[in-house]
Known about the structure:
By secondary structure, the chain is an all-alpha fold. About 70% of the residues lie in helices and about 0% in strands. The chain has one domain (about 10-30, about 70-150, about 205-395, about 410-424). The chain has helices at about 10-20, 25-30, 50, 55-75, 85-105, 105-125, 130-135, 135-165, 170-185, 185-190, 195-240, 250-290, 300-335, 335-340, 345-355, 370-395, 405-424; strands at about 365, 370. The longest helix is centred in the middle third of the chain and has 46 residues, at about 195-240.
Amino acid sequence: MxxxxxxxxxxxxxxxxxxxxxxxxxxxxxxxxxxxxxxxxDDEVDSAPFENEAGxxxxxxxxxxxxxxxxxxxxxxxxxxxxxxxxxQIAYYFFDTTFLVVLFLSFGRQAKMMMDVLDDLQMNNHQYxxxxxxxxxxxxxxxxxxxxxxxxxxxQICETLLDEGWSWTAFWTYWEDDAAWAFGAPAIxxxxxxxxxxxxLTGSLLEKMLxxxxxxxxxxxxLMWYNLVSSFLDDMMRTTNNPEDEDFHPTVVLDHxxxxxxxxxxxxxxMALINGAFIAGNLPFYATNVFEVANGDANIFMRMxxxxxxxxxFPSLMIAAAANAxxxxxxxWICKEENYSLIPDLRLRVFLHExxxxxxxxxxxxxxxVTWNTVGSIVSLIVSYALMxxxxxxxxxxxxxxxxxxxxxxxxxxxxxxxxxxxx
Length: 424
């Protein structure tokens, strides 16, 4: 009389339901995967300080954004033959301005999402994942990058002073002229040239500071995820030769795989904008300036600044790619015959369906995921366009008048055509 009703779902529908539930979201919203220990749970974090930006900050950012948009507009009117890296300059100013405006406007929401990620990690009291936040190396590297990024602001000021002969008068004149050129409205800028000079200097330093902030956040995210994956994989590989160890039974490893995948998705959801700014915004910058590091005739402070940027930008990408490779190793271990044969058939089918369509790693909005292939493509693009810029610079005239002969004009036109073709 009280017999259980048979399910009306077909096997295919049940399989699809399991695929949809593979991200582990529903299970994590209920009972945690591992034992919860309140000792490791932080107190409630008030996100109000992140969401209540002061009016002064809004005003400052509004005017500096206008300043950079005016610079982009002015740059677009230059002759690409006279300025070979013009397109790249426009690109990285555009990316910097756009990404940083959006980041500033949504910083409160981004901070709250990242707090949720940290809460999930801290609530998870499993021995394999506690090392992600106990790694002293991560703290030291992050602190060094933060201090170095603040130091680049000093290098920027010293760079301008060196170009202007270490004269404070010439220094302020440079920024006043820069603001007058960017806004292109002498009737306005001549009213108070010092005010617009301060705005131009502040905008330049603020742009570098916020870029450094996004770079530091990306690097810290990469290091945290690398420690997360690496700590579990190292323990798993140490006991690979012990098939009786239930801690690393294939079914248990699959559970860990699902949990790491879930946390990676939450990290990318919280950091997608910063990840995109780090990759897309810096790509044209390095394509334009990477060879300046080895240019002996360039400003020494500029070379120091670019060298510092390179010292963490390229390693951060490589660490993210290495973490992806470690995660792939976990997947490959599950796919071995002696391991997957111990997994129930339905769970195995769901797992195989999932890995066929998705690469798990640090990424941005699902558009890009950092793997070794991605790093190789980024480096090859940067080197190719940097070499092209060097060739374009080599055909520029040496005389002060700046007159180009017919041969150099034809050569410049050919290189410019190739340049535009490469961008498409």
